[in-house]
Amino acid sequence: MKKIKIPESLFTYFEQVGQKRFYHQNSIIYMQEDQATDLYLITKGRVRVYSLFKDGREMTIEIVEKGRIFGDSSFIQEATRPVSVSAVSDVELISCSLEAMLPYLALSPELTKLLFQLLSETCQHLSTLLDRSYFYDRYQKVAIFLLEQTRFTNEDKGIRQNELCYSHEEIGECVGLNRVTVTKILNEFQENHWVLLSYKKIMILNREGLESIIN
Hints:
Blueprint (H helix, E strand, L loop, with lengths): L10 H7 L1 E5 L4 E3 L8 E6 L1 E7 L5 E8 L3 E2 L13 E4 L3 E6 L1 H10 L1 H27 L2 H12 L13 E2 L3 H8 L3 H13 L3 E4 L2 E4 L2 H8 L1
Antiparallel strand pairs: 1-8, 2-7, 3-6, 3-8, 4-5, 4-7, 9-11, 10-11
Helix pairs in contact: 4-5, 4-7, 5-6
């Protein structure tokens, strides 16, 4: 399923009530447990949403691109951020409060519907991550990630159908495995002629082969 995005034609609602913000690559946008005040719309670039553990480990929850929102914890009064967010690339955002957006939601049923769909999608994504952490082994986790990420072309993420431009370390962060384990698994996939590996690029050659270890 393709990710739901807010089309550029609706960016104007955010622009009228929000502030444009710019972050350089690897900059922190906010940290876990910061006060949740604003909602963010990505108008350029990509961000990484991740969770920090007490021992210093990080787990990537999702890479979010242009047309997507994050920071929906601001919908809850006096909430704190449950996750951290940093810029994967140079990023342009529009930040705004829910209160400022409310009059415009009344004017645009389409925008209201998209926001509800995006919130529902976030809940579904977190539920899927939880299921995988308990019910899938390391081979299945990597296979599912490769299949889902390459199912559709996503220019904002730099992804072509059946071609993923991620390093082994980045994949490991997304699926909760270390780089060495991911490299070992990918090498085995390549030996089976399911994928073709090159520098920061993975080409899917046989989707059925990857699906076979999941099913």
